[in-house]
Amino acid sequence: MTTLATPGARREARAPGATAAIVLPGAATLLGLMNYTAPIATLTDTANGLHAGTTARIWVMSSISLGLAASLLVVGALADDHGRRRLFSLGGGLLALSSVGCALAPDSLTFVAGRIVQGVATAALLATGLGIIGHTFTGAARARAAGIWGAMLGLGIALGPIAAAWLTQLAGWRLWYWVTVAASVALTAAARALPESRAEQRRGLDLPGLVTMVGGVSALLAAVTLGRTGWTRPSVLVLLAVAVVLLAAFVAVESRRTSPMLDLGLFRRPAFLLSVGGALVTGLGVIGLMSNLVTIMVSALRLSALDASLVLGVWSGVSYVAALQARRLPARWSSGLLLGAGLALSAVGELAMLGIDPGTGWERLVPGLLIAGVGSGLANAMLARLAVDSVPPQRASMGSGANNTARYAGAALGVAMVFAINTSSGTTPHAVTEGLNLSLIVSAVVCALGAVAAVPLTRRVTLAAEGERTVTRVLR
Hints:
Elements: H1 7-14, H2 18-37, H3 39-50, H4 54-82, H5 84-104, H6 108-136, H7 139-171, H8 174-190, H9 207-226, H10 234-256, H11 270-300, H12 305-325, H13 335-352, H14 366-389, H15 396-422, H16 429-475
Helix pairs in contact: 2-6, 2-7, 2-8, 3-4, 3-7, 4-5, 4-6, 4-9, 4-15, 5-6, 5-8, 6-7, 6-14, 6-15, 7-12, 7-14, 9-10, 9-15, 11-12, 11-13, 11-14, 11-15, 11-16, 12-14, 13-14, 13-16, 14-15, 15-16
């Protein structure tokens, strides 16, 4: 019996540049997340080399989040208008240049500035990469490609601290940034193989939206970063007030524009709410906790930075495998349902790690890390799928930008939350492990609430899809 391929299947199989549209966004995401997590394992060496004080150390860890979260939505909108391959190439080049600045930085101020620019460059790679996938593929092929992209998030988090710790032992902390330069140059050169794509109609530069959004997110993340040294400090309170005013202005501006950078009407779509809300919960309840875990293992369990990074690799490595295999799950299981399951598994895994004290061996963390890894991988694959499926095809990069903005803004808040909890009772090993146990509970509650909230949204997505199918049958 001969099976005829559908027109959609033929388009997927023959899409020009299809291989590059999977490989290069995946490689860019891998590099971006490795660089994002590298200081987790090298903070002490980096801070000592830059003669960084307490506040400067916080910025060494957090500065890339500011550039990343503040620019993701802007870069996504620009890519849709001016070309996704073009913005991808610019992102690769900017990452190379900013990495040179980090490698040569003589002091913490220069290094932090370089990391902020690295965040902007990484935003260009992440938003455009997923946008390229969304434009190039449809149907099952898009789900597979999005799953691979999501898997690179977990693999990058796994390899970043390990590679950085090993290179630091080999030749010092600066070597990682020279490796990033070489990888970025290679990625930029290879970008010529990508298919170019853009929206049929340009929306134009939304300057008021750009200024209010970037300013608001930057002020918020700066306040969150400085808040680790005291939440009642005048500078923190002023920054929080500025963030509230500017973000409120952004909403007001976007609601009145005919061609906004972010179409607020998308928030009436249950699938878009799942994409953005799920990403926010993942950043707040998962990335925030895991970003602090290496430091906690070093300070409280007395592991070396490399050994602690390898233990964290259990979680992120399993996340990578789970995201790759998510495409094998039955097609009748919706993305929203699987996202909720992933968040629920993350909560279970975090609770399974409870009971840590200074005398606990690292093996005690492994069962929880395995469970949480499966949950993270499943959630990452579904979030990547929802990011491109929940917006019109011509706005795929904007959908990716909104999704990732929520993820990394949530991660910045989560890191600050876990840091505050972990150090609330002191910095002795016993106090830190007590703080970790409380952080595990709080993070698990956040993930569980996200899983519960996904249920009614998933039902609304299903009802909306059934309604669209009914209308299509009637029109036929």
